[in-house]
Amino acid sequence: MAIEPYASGYLKPGDGQEIYWETVGNPDGVPAVYLHGGPGSGAKENIRELFDPEVFRAVLFDQRGCGRSRPSAETVDVDLTVNTTQHLIADIEKLRESLGIERWIVTGISWGSALALAYSQAHPERVLGIVLVAVTAGTRRETEWITWDMRRVFPREWEEFAALVPGATGDLSAPYARLLADPDPEVVERAVKAWNTWEDVHPSLAPGFEPSYSLQEMKVQRTKARLISHYWGNGHFLDQAPILENMAKIGHIPGVLIHGRYDVSSPLDTAWGLHQAWPASRLVVIGDEGHGGAQMFASWIDALNDLGKQAGQTLRGSG
């Protein structure tokens, strides 16, 4: 039986933004917030299944510029200067306050895992626990690996990807962001196609893995390409507050990191480094999956249920 929201609406944090949110599960349950990947992927309906509806009061929302939030970053006339990690952290806090939630579990996948860490480091007193999946830390090293160093793994596909930005070296995100902001629609469409075709290449070395970014509707492809290149090209706006250097702020918060060994675009060393700097964390390595998969989803549910029990006891003890 499909899990449907019991409440939904739009948060208006300023800057002309309207952030779509919804809550599912038990209104009196353990609060949790889900942070999607991308940036720009939006909160998909199947994510509701992560949260036991008897246990959790789960909050899902579409980050600025994507999904059901408005305005969409799909078009080049949308101002992306008001779409940064700091804006998203502020949005999460305003959403928490608007829903009357004191503390919650924070969970995210891919880019959402980096955002979860950045938010938790900014507001550790609001976080009951953290679950990260397909772990990233939003570093420039990571995006240079994906857009430049990966040419050693997929040389033919990379040459096709790099052909649109001749002469560019290192992280190709910023050159692509400029193409995706070009006033000529044909330039933008070529860049969108090339970007999403490359996105289909690199997420996993697991046999049978079949990403489909380039098969999504064009609005979604344009939105994701613009937002991802915008964030990657700006170092995820984390140069002034690198996540790994600030792990001591959340070292006491219980957490689980779940990562696939076949995840070639986000190598395991990022999750390992975070785990080593996080005394209260546990690392789960899925041996035969990459940047997502069925076992990863099942492990995600298990981790949330475990932290949900702990958080429930904490909330009852403080009530």
From TrEMBL:
Enzyme's top EC category: hydrolase
Keywords attached to this entry: Aminopeptidase, Cytoplasm, Hydrolase, Protease
Entry annotation: catalytic residues: S110, D263, H291
GO biological process, one term: proteolysis
InterPro entries xrefs: AB_hydrolase_1, AB_hydrolase_fold, Peptidase_S33, Pro_iminopeptidase
Coiled-coil boundaries: none
EC nos: 3.4.11.5
Catalysed reactions, as listed in the record: Release of N-terminal proline from a peptide
Intracellular or extracellular location(s): Cytoplasm
All residue ranges annotated as the AB hydrolase-1 domain in the record: 33-291
Gene Ontology MF: a single term: aminopeptidase activity
GO cellular component assignments: cytoplasm
Keyword Protease: yes
Similarity section: Belongs to the peptidase S33 family.
NCBIfam families: pro_imino_pep_1 (TIGR01249)
Identification of the protein by name: Proline iminopeptidase
Organism this protein belongs to: Kineosporia babensis
Lineage: Bacteria, Bacillati, Actinomycetota, Actinomycetes, Kineosporiales
Protein encoded by which gene: pip
